[in-house]
Every structure is written in C-alpha cells, then in structure tokens.
Specification:
By secondary structure, the chain is an alpha+beta fold. It has helices spanning 15-30, 38-53, 99-104, 149-160, 178-187, 198-206, 221-234, 247-255, 266-269, 321-327, and strands at 59-64, 80-81, 88-97, 110-117, 129-135, 168-172, 190-194, 214-220, 237-242, 276-281, 292-294, 297-306, 311-320.
Length: 333
Amino acid sequence: MTSSNAPARPDRNLALELVRVTEAAALAAARMVGRGDKEAADQAAVDAMRHVLESVPMDGVVVIGEGEKDEAPMLYNGEQIGDGTPPQVDIAVDPLEGTRLTALGMPSALAVIALAERGSMFDPGPCVYMEKIAGGEEIADLLSLDRPLPETLRLIAERKGMGIGDVTVVMLDRPRHEEAMKQVREAGARIRLILDGDVSAALLAVSDRSPVDLLWGIGGTPEGVISAAALKCMGGELLGRLWPRDDAERQAALDAGYDLDRVLTCNDLCRGDDVFFSATGVTDGDVLQGVRYRGSGATTESLVMRSRSGTVRRISARHDRSKLRAVTGGRYG
C-alpha cells in the first residue's frame, strides 16, 4: 500500500523531448549559414522543426508563432502540433531566431521552443513590439520601465558592488534606441549592441558569469513571451509593456481591450507552473555553441530547462549526418 505522504513519482519531462525538435531545426538551418538567404534558412528550420514536432506525444497549439511581420515561412498561430494525446499545451516557437544572423554567418542564431499548460501564454494581439527590461535574480527587484534608465544602472552598480563603468547593457542596434544609448553612455555604463536576437540576449542577461548585466529595449512581443518562459525556468525577471508602432496599431490594441500602460512580468507573459524550454545554437554565441561539422558528423549544444524542477541542462550531442538523412528523408542532417 502506498503512503499518502510518499513523494510523487517524477513525471514526464517534455523538455527532454523538445531538444530533438530544436536540434533538428538548428541542423537544418546551419546548412544555410553564410549563404545570404535568410528566407531559405528560416524555411529549412521550420520544416525540420515541424517534422519532429509531429512525433511528440502532446496536444499542442501554437499561440506564439513567428513570421507574420516579415512574411517569412512559419509555424502559424493556431496550428495543431503533436500527435493529439495529452498533455494539452501552449507552444511558443521561433524555429530560427536570427534569420539575418544565419544568412550573414554572424553569432548568436538559435532554434527555440517553449511549452506551458494550455491557456497560460500571453496573447499580444495586434502588438508586434514591446518595451523590455530583463536581468538576473540578484537585480530583479531593481528593474523598472518607468524609472529613468541611468538611475536603474546606478542602482545595479551599487547592488553588484561595482562602478557604473563596469555595468553592461545589451540592446538591439536600432534607430529607436539612439536616445537610450546616449543616456547609458553619458551615465558612464557600457553597451553591447546586437543586430538581432532578443531571446539570446535575454538568456545572456540572466546567465551566470555573463558579461552582460541588463537587457533593455524595444523588441518583438513573440520573443518577449519566449524569453519569459525561459526565465521562469532559469531565474531572473523580464518586464514588458506593449509598444504599438503607429496610431492604427494602438487603436486596434485598445479596441481589443489591451491596457497599454500595464507592465507585464514573466508570470503575466507565461502563467504556467510547468514550463518547458529548449534552445539549440545555430551559430556560435555567448550563450550556446553553434552547429559544427566534423567529417561525416555534426555537433550541437542545447539549453534545456523545466520550471517545475528548476533544472537547467546543457546538452552536447554528436550526430551522424548520413544516418539522420536516412531516417528523416533528407530533411536535415
């Protein structure tokens, strides 16, 4: 007879099945690194990811897909994923974060997916962009989208026991950030500009021994939800606020009932208690090593996490490309 006080038996960790999904997308996209064709790289990642997702025992719905805003190939919002068996889950996906990075052979492109309980992921509606600030657990309580950024940087320096000249902010290199860049530099802090890659930057901002202390800027809402899912697993905080691009988008959001002044936390963006996340490097970066080819084989590195257990795994894998091509019908390998 089993005691009612006996510990629960460990249940299924979907993250360990999702790593096959992001590995497939990364291996497919990596064949296009440096070839100058971001659409082809994205399509390869999407096709490989969808192929493996169809075999995962789950009843999934894509609630955060990528592609609408730049007419790229995509796993579309509302698409049914998995074999239809329980559990019922929301899926947030970016088969290739950094299509331009991949096309140009630049660092930090990733294949990314996150899952959570059905109905738990935030739907940003018509808003493509959001303001974001993210940092690790040590400074989570200092984050604010309303306080002047230089003041937040000074508080971070004080908390970490360093000079403000040692504080580094990562942000997208965009014209809309020029005033903030000026403020950060005038305060004496440093900036690491990135061409693309919000999710990679958020992971970098909360990682141990990271050269970056803070993520700040206006970036994609899909990436914000995916980043929130990751941070629910590995710790830290992300705050976001919807940022309409024009009056028409603002009115559409208001008509749909969105509060554009509301500051959203990780728990607002991903309310689930059992969140799964997997990312595999496509090109080398600060967070993950990219796909590397060695003779007839290839290696990948992935970050695989689950919020319920707080387990963060870094998985290095070796793949036989000829065998992969044989079992996948040549889709990747």
